[in-house]
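Give me structure tokens for this 100-residue protein.
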Amino acid sequence: MTQEQQRAKDFIDAASSAGYNVRSYSGRGMYGDSCLGIVADNVIATVVNVLLNINIDEQYDFLDVFESARTDSMGMSDIVYFPKLKVTPEIEKMLVDSEY
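Here you go.
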């Protein structure tokens, strides 16, 4: 597993532990690339809850991920997405596996 895949897996695991479903999302200015995102009613609470579920020794490694987070409105909710966590075919499989 590459470092990028491990980081995505750790993020997916932390979000799942916090009760969130992670999905693939292509945000503004990404030109068709996809990254990890979470649909949220409260973006700040979502980010904090995911961060709190990341191993304390690894939180610093995710600083750039959270600093680059963006949001889009999806009508009744928002999506917070993380362009530094690109979705590759291997990461897409992790997303599918985490749904079960």
